């Protein structure tokens, strides 16, 4: 390792406390869908304090909706944006992107948390809070890595873009908006909290909603109505059957996993009153599938599965309505031979003395937008988190330090590879 | 029929349009739990226009909560009240009560309605809207019956109390508050929309809530969590088994019905995000039972059924939490020999030329409070409605006319029975 690199790594140790502070500042802003503004403002403040140029990339850009990779959504887009800090945008040379998402998934009901999920706390080497792991610590690490490099006296001369986006948890349209505005770059690193492993591929994901309308009635004669909650439950086996089929069809590299493609019915809402026969029921869920399958084909199979179940089970009422909002994301495999991935592996070896493990994912990340919409290579590499999307989510503090160092070292070497020092 | 009675009935025809107007005014105020204020203000305006004295009976009276028949609830009580119009409260002689409820059950999702449920409309002899049948038309009929009697020149000299209450659909605490304040009277008629039939008894009802906490996790490994929606569904058979037992135990007069005691799971809410394994699920429901059973015994059986299912099915996580809010109402049989009921039967015969049918109910009404908390006899007799608690709820307009006349005639004869004309 060069002296300069050692200086950079020492500087990473120096800025760890600030990194935790930024993470905590972001956790305090509970940035669920539609409520990202507080986190965006905190992030913008940090970019400014660190002397990084910052630009807002709105999600309601009309031309974005025309992008073939845009996912239709049914929530408002006004005043919602990503933040991009573009260094040396006019410089020649390969353009590096660090990307992370500011949005988090809901934590309700919060009474199961040890402390309120938007009041970050530290305990025995872990930082807790909703989004602490997924992925505010990763964002803080990637941003502070750039700061550490500069603090160590290393001038950044190549184009480097930091992106902190929204809608990673629902549509992927945030990252897509950055790419749509020309910020795709040539290689992207995303510090998703899957640990210090090279992310080697991800599943496709479609997000769906099914609505059943029953025939409502008073409970004095429940037989007069048809219970939408009960009808909805009778559809579940058809969805599970589709899940089983998608897993049975799996090919390498997913064949080494027993069940990589998960169905999740993540929300169920039905009826409105204890003494009214439920007149409606809605579920929202997601289903994973192999990189070989197209989102459109899986959407079609899901619609057919529900329609067939309605007919075969002779379910009452109108056929259920299936619609799709948010993710309709292809899976893909990471090009593990790409120069950026090879460089990351070298950095990992330099820092740990060991080869990096690979991590094949059963979910999706914003890597998808870079891969499918811009043909940009990239991978994820980040802190270690536990219980993401769960209760008492937490991120390991030493793993944040490692992420800081890995991103800083990567940035130094990326620049050195192509530009004389 | 006496001339005076004929004049009163003719006056009822005169005020039918006003009765429909009052019904529509009330339907326009969508008076679901916690939002009854608009309907109360409209009602108060009508009482005042008709020259009837009006008094507010608050539900947050601290002594009410000490009443042994009060149902514990977990929603706010401040600024929520019933309206009582007490005529001749100081007069001697038997005290007659007409009682109806202003609260309605939710109509959401309203997109299944032909028109918005709070925009009343008439079509082919029916008046439509949420609460049109259950029971704003009944309230309008009972109030306008009093007005018609007075307009016909018949002086009301006995104590008569009109009560328009809230919380009939959830706790029964509204009617109880009237009784608690001394407005129980000696006989009560409630124009619930079960038609021109003598209500002969009602089931007991307990309202319950069950909450399951899962072990939340990211969908990348659904097996890491335990799905609260799925766990909740696995409890349903235990609840259905209790329902079957309660029906198997039925005694006369409920033995002539195949299934008088209904379980209804009227609300299901679980999870919070398509791609998070559901961390919680809550159901709200009601279960009916025989007049012989006590609410406490049924509540106990329900708790045991859920706890046993949790153990026997080896369900994951903590035992489900069962709690009770709102109805914990005894069933009871109406004393069909009481003078008031006999008089109502006579009025029915006078108006229709036929004996009244009896109607044994599988649900509960505010009659319960009069029976159990004050030992006051009474029954229901009212308009014909369809799809109460359902979509496109409607009430038959000719049946409103009949209810008007029956209540007016009853009032005349009630007075004549005990006071020389």
TrEMBL record, chains A, B:
<keyword id="KW-0862">Zinc</keyword>
<dbReference type="InterPro" id="IPR011650">
    <property type="entry name" value="Peptidase_M20_dimer"/>
</dbReference>
<dbReference type="InterPro" id="IPR002933">
    <property type="entry name" value="Peptidase_M20"/>
</dbReference>
<protein>
    <submittedName>
        <fullName>Acetylornithine deacetylase</fullName>
    </submittedName>
</protein>
<dbReference type="Pfam" id="PF01546">
    <property type="entry name" value="Peptidase_M20"/>
</dbReference>
<comment type="similarity">
    <text>Belongs to the peptidase M20A family.</text>
</comment>
<dbReference type="GO" id="GO:0016787">
    <property type="term" value="F:hydrolase activity"/>
</dbReference>
<dbReference type="InterPro" id="IPR010182">
    <property type="entry name" value="ArgE/DapE"/>
</dbReference>
<dbReference type="InterPro" id="IPR050072">
    <property type="entry name" value="Peptidase_M20A"/>
</dbReference>
<dbReference type="Pfam" id="PF07687">
    <property type="entry name" value="M20_dimer"/>
</dbReference>
<feature type="domain" description="Peptidase M20 dimerisation">
    <location>
        <begin position="201"/>
        <end position="311"/>
    </location>
</feature>
<dbReference type="GO" id="GO:0046872">
    <property type="term" value="F:metal ion binding"/>
</dbReference>
<keyword id="KW-0170">Cobalt</keyword>
<keyword id="KW-0479">Metal-binding</keyword>
<keyword id="KW-0378">Hydrolase</keyword>
<dbReference type="InterPro" id="IPR036264">
    <property type="entry name" value="Bact_exopeptidase_dim_dom"/>
</dbReference>
């Amino acid at each position: 390792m060069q002296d300069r690199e050692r200086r950079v790594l020492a500087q990473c140790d120096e800025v760890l406390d600030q990194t935790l502070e930024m993470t905590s500042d972001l956790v305090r802003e509970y940035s669920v869908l539609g409520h990202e503004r507080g986190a965006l403002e905190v992030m913008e403040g940090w970019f400014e304090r660190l002397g990084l140029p910052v630009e807002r990339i709105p999600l309601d850009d009309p031309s974005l909706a025309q992008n073939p990779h845009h996912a239709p959504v049914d929530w408002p887009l006004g005043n919602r944006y990503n933040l991009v800090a573009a260094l040396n945008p006019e410089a020649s040379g390969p353009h590096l992107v660090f990307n992370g998402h500011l949005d988090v998934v809901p934590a309700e009901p919060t009474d199961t948390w040890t402390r309120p999920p938007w009041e970050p706390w530290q305990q025995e080497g872990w930082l807790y809070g909703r989004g602490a792991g997924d992925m505010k610590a990763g964002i803080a690490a990637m941003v502070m890595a750039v700061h550490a490099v500069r603090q160590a006296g290393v001038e950044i001369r190549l184009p480097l873009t930091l992106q902190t986006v929204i809608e990673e948890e629902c549509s992927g349209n945030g990252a897509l908006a950055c790419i749509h505005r020309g910020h795709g770059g040539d290689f992207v690193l995303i510090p998703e909290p899957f640990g210090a492993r090279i992310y080697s591929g991800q599943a496709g994901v479609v997000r769906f909603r099914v609505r059943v309308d029953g025939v409502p009635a008073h409970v004095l004669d429940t037989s007069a109505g048809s219970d939408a909650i009960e009808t909805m439950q009778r559809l579940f086996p058809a969805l599970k059957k589709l899940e089983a089929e998608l897993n049975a069809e799996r090919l390498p590299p997913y064949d080494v996993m027993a069940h990589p493609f998960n169905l999740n019915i993540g929300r169920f809402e039905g009826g409105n009153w204890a003494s009214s026969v439920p007149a409606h029921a809605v579920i929202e869920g997601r289903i994973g599938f192999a990189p070989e399958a197209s989102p459109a084909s899986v959407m079609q199979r899901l619609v057919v599965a529900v329609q067939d179940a309605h007919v075969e089970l002779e379910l009452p009422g109108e056929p259920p309505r299936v619609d799709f909002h948010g993710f309709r994301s292809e899976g893909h495999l990471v090009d593990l031979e790409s120069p950026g991935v090879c460089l990351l592996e070298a950095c990992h070896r330099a820092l740990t003395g060991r080869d990096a493990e690979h991590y094949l994912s059963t979910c999706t990340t914003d890597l998808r937008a870079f891969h499918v919409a811009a043909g940009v290579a990239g991978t994820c590499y980040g802190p270690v988190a536990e219980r993401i999307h769960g209760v008492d989510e937490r991120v390991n503090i030493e793993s944040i330090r490692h992420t800081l160092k890995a991103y800083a070292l990567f940035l130094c070497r990326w620049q050195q590879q192509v530009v004389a020092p």
